[in-house]
Write a structure and sequence with these properties.
Elements lengths: L1 H15 L3 H7 L1 H18 L3 H14 L6 H14 L3 H14 L4 H16 L3 H15 L14 H9 L25 H7 L3 H17 L6 H14 L2 H15 L6 H36 L7 H27 L7 H13 L3 H15 L3 H16 L8 H12 L6 H17 L3 H11 L7 H13 L4 H11 L9 H14 L3 H14 L4 H16 L3 H14 L4 H16 L3 H14 L6 H13 L3 H11 L1 H5 L3 H14 L4 H14 L4 H22 L7 H13 L4 H6 L3 H8 L3 H9 L16 H10 L3 H14 L3 H17 L3 H14 L7 H11 L3 H14 L7 H12 L5 H15 L4 H30 L1
Length: 930
């Protein structure tokens, strides 16, 4: 029977493919479709949405069987949304939902539509759409993407992971990601189910998912279950379920995500209620003022405030648990930052400080946010009308004392200003004056300091002696508004406004010669510098800049002139003058030196090709900031020094290790170690996907260090099996197995595949001829692992064992088990490619698996033509290729006549036919010559 079918297929092929001309004609439709889509996407990429819309509309209508049609509908939806055509946006999403069930685009379209309905506050319609999606699928998906702004290449990589080198379920560098994860779309479902009836409705919809995935629900789904139950029944029953879920995690640190989600959701709801009350009161107040009556607030507003207070209380309790048990987790950085923002908006100073202390202790190396959170604390203390006794200011001073700043120049200056302002709030003027004398010393001198204290002295007489001392030290004369020079300054400014340059020069020359030390003369010289700089007249500009810099060396206005000179010399690329100006600023106004000034000096070193000098300067100039653990500055130093060495990964890792020593004993040390590990491992591997390029000798020791460090327990948890993975990546099966067996044994593992690279471990064991022991371990892990992710990982481990032992058929069988056991086999395309790659020596099996897979994912139009094209390409040149290609071409012609895959496959076959004819002609010509 099989031979009969094969003969028929061969006959069919001779009818379908008589010549290259036929192939060209058959593929013409796909070629036209490809060109139209490329034109549309080029307009789309350039954000020319008005031009892209008719092109996409024509494409989806004229070439509906092309593989990019589902993606084009998403892009069309994005274009229409950008053009404010919301009905058209929804219509495009509905087309995907109607025509492309099961594809990644189908899920995205539903996610986008649900997100839109939520933004419009259409709760019932949202739940109706959610019910329709779940009814079609049988259960609710745990995750749902809603991004319609896509490009075809990135879309395919993200949804189907076309990069076959990327090993699925393998925790490579991803193991360093935080264990705390944000919630997904199910939190939107909870938000939209805001009444008892809606909550009951939502619970009914997700019940199938809750039952089937009971043991492996992620934290956001567990929270959703508890919260929906809370809204439909008693709080006591919901709290019992919450505790059951928590105990189910055991020692798994990912339980922290449950508390984060709970804290943030309660906080979000409380904030929304309070904002609504404020808006309602403002509206009532406005109406009362209009009618000239006393405003009356309905009791409903008091009920909302009470509800917000209750939610805030539950959020506070969750945060107490987080700060008590998980404050060291790196994954808390974003949640703690958002919490501080919320408390600042609500003017909750005590709670703000309660979160601020652990935040500063753990994330002091986050330079930009250090300044933000500290300045907000100071503002809450100073501007509070509720703090007549100054208790807030006193507490803020304690925080500043607990987290002192010394070597970081910018932080140190801010630190002193904050202390001064807090002392003024507490009426401790003597302490404030002491700080003022420090800030006006030569170590911190600059224009900002001068103008601040000059303004302050006009409001507070205690600072007048400080200002007078600064005047004497830095040569800042007192203004005399009635003096002769002041009158000449007024005339000068009028001349400059009228562009009467010659008369202006005469005036300022007279002032400079006869009233040189007068404050008005100094302003006149500065005015001439600004005038000529604006007119781009270099020679007179330089003359007056030189006079200003020489005659008034430390005057605040001279600082501005030096900045002007620095910019002018940089623009002219006169780097020697830039260097001399830079050194002058550093000597006279050290209080203004910051990161941008360091970059200017680096620019000069690079212009002079002085690599060694540049590197010495960088490490010296930013030494204090590095020792303070400022990640932003560290990244800056790395970028500068690495650019001098060609971005070598080993150099980058070595640089992080050097900085790691400088911040030993601080959370920044862990940050440096993580970055060094990534540089030694990720940097060499990912460009070429070649394990041989990894610096195992340098990254290996960091495995143990990261796993055993005490700064962040979540990193230790993530890195628990890093040594096993590294030995497996080096194909040291015995070492990897011994390392795994040395780990503490557990009765049950939950998502062990997040930390252990099952596939690579299997390959290493297979290559080390330890297949039996590997299979025994895989069977044992299968009994101990219970999540679907881990069950797939065990199959991948067995596939790796057989692959390493050079038994491709058995390896492929286990890979295909993963593909077909998945509820969404299209998402397992990367594993399918691994499997059929092993089956290529057996064309019959190869073709049968391609047929089986395409039948399984027949509705996924964006993938099937690509699978068939790839199969046809791989099968061409093998025995019986005509029969295989005839079948594949027949499928493409009948189901996807306008596909680009059909066009490319036909073009490939035509090229092969032409090559065969050319070879045959050459052979005959040689024979004729003989």
């Amino acid at each position: 029977m099989k031979r009969h079918l094969l003969t028929c297929a061969c006959v069919l092929l001779t009818l379908l493919v008589p010549s290259a001309v036929v192939f060209a004609q058959a593929g013409k439709l796909g070629q036209e479709a490809d060109k139209l889509y490329e034109t549309a996407e080029s307009q789309y990429a350039g954000k020319q949405y008005a031009d892209a819309i008719p092109l996409f509309e024509r494409f989806v209508k004229s070439y509906s069987s092309h593989e990019n049609v589902p993606i084009a509908y998403l892009q069309l939806a994005h274009c229409r949304r950008a053009q404010k055509d919301m009905p058209g946006y929804l219509a495009a999403l509905d087309e995907v939902i109607r025509r492309h069930f099961g594809s990644a685009a189908w899920y995205t379209a539903y996610g986008a539509k649900l997100k839109y309905l939520k933004s419009q506050g259409k709760n019932d319609e949202y739940l109706t759409q959610f019910e329709a999606m779940v009814r079609r699928l049988g259960e609710a998906p745990l995750e749902l993407d809603s991004k319609v702004a896509v490009r075809v290449g990135r879309y395919l990589r993200a949804r189907y992971d076309f990069d076959v080198w990327r090993r699925p379920l393998a925790p490579t560098a991803g193991m360093l990601q935080p264990v705390i994860k944000d919630g997904g779309y199910v939190l939107d479902v909870v938000e939209m189910a805001d009444t008892k009836d809606r909550a009951q409705r939502a619970l009914r919809v997700i019940m199938a998912t809750l039952r089937r995935r009971a043991k492996e629900l992620p934290p956001d789904w567990q929270y959703a279950h508890v919260e929906l139950l809370r809204r439909t029944s008693s709080d006591q029953q919901a709290e019992k379920l919450w505790n059951d879920y928590l105990s189910g995690w055991g020692s798994d640190l990912r339980a922290a995500s449950m508390w984060v989600i709970r804290a943030e959701q309660f906080q979000k709801r409380a904030g929304k209620l309070r904002d609504g009350v404020v808006a309602a009161k403002q509206e009532i107040d406005a109406e009362a003022r209009k009618n000239k009556v006393k405003p009356k607030y309905p009791s409903e507003l008091d009920a909302r405030i009470a509800q917000a207070d209750a939610l805030d209380k539950m959020s506070d309790e969750a945060w107490d648990r987080l700060l008590k048990s998980y404050a060291a987790f790196g994954g808390l950085y974003r949640p703690m930052r958002d919490r501080l923002n919320y408390l600042n908006r609500r003017n909750r100073f005590d709670d703000y400080v309660k979160v601020l202390r652990p935040f500063l202790k753990r994330f002091n190396y986050k330079g930009g946010w250090w300044q933000t959170v500290m300045s907000r604390m100071v503002s809450l203390a100073i501007w509070s009308s509720e703090d007549a006794a100054g208790t807030r200011a006193a507490e803020a001073l304690k925080v500043l004392d607990e987290f002192p700043v010394t070597s970081h120049r910018e932080r140190n200056r801010l630190y002193l200003f904050w202390r001064l302002r807090l002392y003024l709030k507490l009426n401790q003027t003597d302490q404030a004056v002491k700080i003022a004398r420090t800030l006006t010393s030569s170590d911190h001198w600059g224009a900002e300091v001068w103008w601040y204290f000059l303004s302050l002295s006009r409001r507070n007489d205690a600072f007048k002696p400080v200002v007078e001392a600064a005047r004497k030290t830095y040569g800042v004369p007192v203004e005399d508004p009635d003096g002769k020079a002041a009158g000449m300054l007024k005339e000068l400014r009028q001349r400059l406004r009228d562009d009467q340059t010659r008369h202006a020069e005469e005036i300022v020359e007279e002032m400079y010669n006869t009233h040189r030390k007068d404050a008005a003369t100094i302003e006149a010289v500065k005015a001439m510098v600004d005038y000529y700089y604006g007119k781009l007249l270099a020679k007179p500009r330089d003359k007056w800049m030189s006079r200003m810099i020489v005659a008034y060396p430390k005057h605040p206005l001279t600082e501005e002139v030096l900045r002007t000179q620095l910019n002018a010399m940089r623009a002219a690329r006169r780097y020697k003058r830039v260097v001399s100006t830079w050194e002058t600023i550093k000597a006279r106004f050290p209080g203004i030196m910051n990161a941008s000034h360091g970059n200017i000096r680096v620019e000069c070193y690079k212009a002079a090709n002085d690599v060694e000098g540049c590197e010495r300067f960088v490490w010296k100039y930013w030494d204090g900031e590095i020792r303070s653990g400022d990640e932003y500055v560290m990244q800056r130093v790395l970028r500068i020094t690495a650019s001098l060495h060609g971005w070598d990964n080993k150099f980058r890792g070595d640089t992080w290790m050097r900085m790691k020593k400088m911040v030993a004993g601080t959370p920044a040390e862990l940050m440096c170690a993580r970055n060094a590990w990534v540089a030694y491992y990720m940097g060499p591997y990912y460009p070429s996907h070649d394990m041989r390029r990894v610096h195992f000798d340098l990254a290996g020791p960091l495995n143990a260090e990261l796993a055993n460090q005490k700064i962040d327990p979540s990193v230790s948890w993530r890195m628990a099996y890093a040594d096993v993975n590294f030995l497996a990546h080096q194909e040291n099966g015995k070492g990897a197995l011994d390392a795994f067996n040395a780990k503490p044994k557990q009765r049950k593992y939950r998502d062990l595949s997040l930390r252990l690279d099952f596939y690579r471990l299997g390959v290493a064991l297979g290559k080390s001829k330890m297949g039996r022991r590997g299979l025994a371990l895989a069977d044992a892990l299968k009994r101990q692992c219970f999540t679907s992710r881990d069950r797939h990982a065990v199959e991948l481990m067995k596939a790796g064992i057989y692959s390493g032992a050079e038994q491709p058929a058995l390896a492929a069988r286990h890979l295909l088990n993963v593909v077909y056991s998945s509820p969404r086999p299209a998402r397992m395309y990367r594993i399918f490619r691994m499997a059929i790659g092993l089956l290529r020596p057996d064309p019959n099996r190869y073709f049968s698996e391609v047929t089986r897979y395409t039948n399984k994912i027949a509705a996924v139009q964006e993938l099937v033509p690509r699978v068939l094209y790839r199969a046809g390409y791989r099968l061409s040149g093998l025995p019986n290729e005509k029969a295989y290609l005839a079948r594949i071409r027949s499928l493409l012609a009948s189901r996807y006549p306008a596909s680009g895959a059909r066009y490319r496959l036909d073009a490939h076959i035509a090229r092969r036919l032409k090559e065969r004819r050319d070879r045959e002609r050459e052979r005959r010509e040689k024979q004729n010559k003989k």
